[in-house]
Amino acid sequence: MRQDVRMTVRTNLVLPPELVKRVDRLAGSRGRSRYVTEALERAVRRDEQRQALLAGAGWLRDRPGYEHWSTSDRVVEWVRAGRAAGADPWG
Predict the structure, then answer these.
(1) What is this structure's pTM?
(2) Given a cut of 90, is residue 90 above it in pLDDT?
(3) I need a surface site. Which of 3, 15, 23, 35 has the fewest CB within 10 A?
(4) 63: which DSSP letter?
(5) Are 16 and 23 in contact (CB under 8 A)?
(6) Which is more confident, 19 or 60?
(7) Helix axes 32-56, 17-27, angle to 10 degrees
(8) 3-state secondary structure of 81
(9) C-alpha to C-alpha distance for 61 and 72, rounded to whole angstroms
(10) How many angstroms separate the CA atoms of 22 and 80, rounded?
């Protein structure tokens, strides 16, 4: 017996028949909901990460001490200089 009990909401999706056939071939018709749930969870996680990255993009650009982040070219120069010096960016 599964210990992972989730609350679920019944919904109605309109999908192309060929897509449903492909999902059923992979998941079986009894595994369709689980398959779609897992696919949507991955897609939502990816889209949320993308939104977070876009929301934070450029926030260091104008902050003192981060001039090397002001343009793409300056970032590349900074990375190359650190590599050439053998600097450990995590150290």
Answers:
(1) 0.62
(2) no
(3) 3
(4) S
(5) no
(6) 19
(7) 110
(8) helix
(9) 10
(10) 47
